[in-house]
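hey m, so remember when u said the C-alpha cells were messed up on ur end? i reran from scratch. heres the input so u can diff it against urs
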Amino acid sequence: MDTNILLESGTNELEVLEFALGQNHYGINVSKIKEILSYQPVTPIPNANPCVEGVFMPRDLMITVINLKRCIGIEEDENKGLFIITNFNKLNIAFHVDEVIGIHRVSWEDIIKPDATINSSETGVSTGVIKMDDKLIIILDFEKIVTDISPETGLKVSDIDAYIDANRDRSDNPILIAEDSPLLSKLITDCLKKSGYTKQIVTMNGQEAWDKICEFKKAGTLYKKVHCIITDIEMPLMDGHRLTKLAKEDEEIKKIPVVIFSSLVNEEMRRKGEELGADAQLTKPEIGNLVEAIDRLIDACSFD
C-alpha cells in the first residue's frame, strides 16, 4: 500500500491509515509510516517487555516489533497479520496488526478528543476518535505506547540540567505552548520552568493557541504576552502546521518565532515546516535543544 500521499502544507488535514485488531478499528497518521510488510518471523529478546515480540532485520536494519493486541489488552489469535513500520522520535518500530483497511483523508476539526474519563495522562493511549459511516476509528497514541514500554525514549526533565544558566534570566519571556497530550504538555512545561521560562500560556491544540494569539493582537498586547510559540504537529481542531501557516501569514504575528516540537519531524515534515516559515523544528526527545533554540530565537527578536 502506498503511504506516500502528499498533502498541501497547512491545510489542517491528515491522512489516517485504518487498521484492525480483532473486530476493532484503529488509526495511525500516515506521516508516521515508512512501509507496510507482511508478517515475518521475529527473534524473541530475553527479558523484554511482554508487548515486544522481538526483532527482525529487513534490508539490514534491525527493527523492534511491538504486538499492539498485547498493548491494549485484546485477545491474541493465530492471525499472522501485517507489520506497520513506523518512524517517529528517530525510532524505527514495527507494530503488529491483523489487517489494514485503507487510508482516509480527514480534517483535524473532525477528530473528537477523548475526555478525561477514558483518556487520562497516565493510562490513556488514544489521541482522538473519528466517526466514519457506522463505525468509530480510534487513533492510538503510539508515542505513549513506546514510552510506556521503554521510558528512556521519552522526555526526561533531568536532561534540562545542562541548560540551566544562572547568568541568564528567562522569566521575562512568555512562551505559548500548543500540545494536546496532557502527559507531554506537563513534561514540556516542567522542563521549561526548570530552565527559567516560568511565564507560560498552555493550550491543548492549535485552535486554542490561535484564539489566544488573536485575542492578544486585538488587545494590543501581543508582544507583551508571547515571545515564542511552541507547537506540536498532531492536534485536534487545528494542527501545528496550520497554526504555523496562519502565524507566518500575518504581518504582525510573524515576528514571533515558531518552534515545531514534534515526534513527526523527519526529512519530509521538516521540509513542510520550512515552507510554512517555522523558525526551528525539533523532535520530542530533544528537550535540551528546545531551550537552546528558544534562547537563540528570542535573542534575535525585538518586541518593542
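this time it looks ok to me. The helical segments are 68-72, 142-149, 182-195, 206-219, 222-225, 240-249, 267-276, 287-299. if urs says something different then somethings off w ur setup not the seq
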